[in-house]
Design goal:
By secondary structure, the chain is an alpha+beta fold. Helices cover about 35% and strands about 20% of the residues. The two termini are about 25 Å apart.
Length: about 200
């Protein structure tokens, strides 16, 4: 389902703007590492990670496919093999990779193999893209999350890292630049209710 269709429906919502993400505590070490997550709508994944202290940036884009430099329209039409993804750059002295993966699970429904919330289709699938060094931490996090799941089969895979392509500029920082529109979209999609059903107090 194209998100443009969903956005027509949210104009009827009266939504409150989301608060700005908190500033990270502690000095910046200057070190940088990256992680890539696919969690359905990249607007939501980006917004969730930007709130985490120690995250330097979160960029919306596409990963896991075969088409070079895909556009948003190409990806949502299908056939490129890409998932909507977010590349997270973080300071490992302030936040660990493992803690980012732990957080990621609780912002998605990992039992849903057909998309996320109201966004349906292959491009809205979920995955954690890992380097060889990141794989042990990601797999340990996945095992721990499976024990906390309220039911259903864990469907989100851990995949070898693939080329990440940034999305168009109008998708970047969407939730921060369009807080009312994004809040309505999020509410329309039923994110909070579904996360509560899947994770309970462990969710967001």
């Amino acid at each position: 389902m194209r998100r443009t269709v969903t956005l027509i429906a949210i104009l009827a919502f009266s939504a409150c703007a989301e608060s700005a993400p908190p500033a990270a505590a502690g000095p910046d070490s200057g070190r940088r590492e990256t992680a890539v997550f696919a969690g359905g709508c990249f607007w939501s994944v980006e917004a969730n990670f930007e709130r985490i202290p120690g995250v330097v940036s979160a960029v919306s884009g596409f990963s896991g496919g075969t088409t070079r430099a895909p556009t948003y329209d190409q990806v949502v039409r299908g056939g490129t093999g890409h998932l909507e993804s977010v590349q997270v750059t973080f300071d490992p002295a302030r936040v660990s990779y493992r803690s980012l993966v732990d957080r990621f699970w609780r912002t998605i429904d990992p039992t849903d193999s057909g998309g996320q919330f109201c966004d349906r289709g292959a491009s809205y699938g979920t995955a954690v893209f890992v380097t060889a060094a990141q794989r042990p931490a990601a797999e340990a996090s996945r095992r721990a999350a499976m024990l906390q799941l309220r039911g259903g089969q864990f469907a989100t895979p851990i995949l070898a890292v693939a080329r990440f392509w940034p999305a168009e500029a109008y998708h970047q920082d969407f939730a921060r630049r369009n807080p009312v529109r994004y809040a309505g979209y999020s509410r329309f999609c039923g994110r909070a209710a579904r996360l509560d059903a899947v994770w309970g107090d462990a969710g967001t």
